[in-house]
Amino acid sequence: MNKGKGSLKEAAQKALSRGEWRKALECFQHHCAQEPEDLRSRLKVAELLERLGQKKEAVQGYRKVAEAYAQDGFLLQAISINKMVLRIDPLAKEVNDRLAQLYAERANEMKPIRPFPRIPLFSDLNEQELQALLPHLQSKTFPKGSCICREGERGDSLFVITRGEVAIIRQAPKGEEVWIRNLKDGDLFGEFGYFVDQKRHATVKAITECEVLEIYRTELNEIMQIHPRLNEVLQNLFKERILDNFLALSPLFSSLNPGERGETLKWFHLRKIPEGTLLFKGGDPPTSLYMVRSGEVEIFTQNRLGKKVRLGLLESGNLFGEIGLLFDKPRMANARTTRPTELLEMTQGDLKACLLEFPQLQTRLKEISLKRLSRMKELLSQETIQKAKEAMV
């Protein structure tokens, strides 16, 4: 066959589109002999061998391509190909260990040929943690135009795109769909529901045929029992992907640039609080401000007749407890969780350090606090208003 490199690949693609698998295989094999670094074409060879029932040869091809992808730093593609190997030969468990070893070796080289592309979650795992994670990943393929997940559905898993492109879409108040952004190979999605409230906050549609890897919360929790450092990796992912969004939308921290917001993350500490826990009550000394990561917190007080007056129900992203710290006054209201809740806490000392580093926040914090006090006064009786002048939340 005397066809040039380009024409060989074109002939292979045309034969493939016509369903002429043997001819496509022959053309791809000749092309790969001339261009061994064309991993996509080598993958097509393995796929065609599998279609033609030559499973042993297909597995060998898949393995070699997966190793080549891993050595080049394309971990997600290598994982996806290994899932094909395991589909044909479920006993080939060692492929995951080999993949983790190869990736770790290349990542640890003193002078890599080129920097590895950063992959959320995966790039922060060591070899043992990656080995533990790989068997739990589910590889899924979605045809062009299909829906991967829908806004409002339960969402307790993370997705990483190994191939293709997806659109992130949200529903506007009037029901129309609003495009947010597109994501491509290596991008992660589903993290907001995973970390915050186990609910999908957007619809994700496949713009092209897509392959994704999915990992469920329950399986990550199992891995953490053996590899507890994974919890630290996930917390870092939360800070990187979710907390920064909270701060960017926060009336207090939105004035900071991304680098400055990143600096404030060091002052927040995660607390897991059971349902029905009283966080503080009126008259308590102020010790911390809080941001709701997930769950719900009720802020309430009592009027002069002893009846409860609800001041607000706070959900993900809401900040509270800052007024007492700012004015150094006892709490005026009560705060209680209404369901299991995760809070990000900043202590009084950490807030002072934060305001020293970013003094512009002081003015903004006072503005927010005074507005919040004004809203409280609208809900309280005249007697309680008098008390509010002497004690502030």
3D architecture notes:
By secondary structure, the chain is α+β, with helices and mostly antiparallel strands. It folds into three domains: 5-117, Serine Threonine Protein Phosphatase 5, Tetratricopeptide repeat; 118-249, Sandwich (Jelly Rolls), CATH 2.60.120.10; 261-388, Jelly Rolls (Sandwich), CATH 2.60.120. Helix content is 46%, strand content 22%. The chain is built from 15 helices and 14 strands. It has helices spanning 5-17, 21-34, 39-51, 55-71, 75-88, 94-107, 127-133, 191-197, 217-226, 229-249, 258-264, 322-327, 348-357, 360-379, 382-388, and strands at 138-142, 147-149, 157-163, 166-171, 177-183, 188-189, 203-206, 210-216, 269-273, 278-280, 288-302, 308-314, 319-320, 334-347. The strands form three sheets. Strands 9, 10, 11, 12, 13 and 14 form a six-stranded antiparallel sheet that branches. A hairpin with a 5-residue loop joins strand 11 and strand 12 (308-314). It is elongated and about 85 Å long.
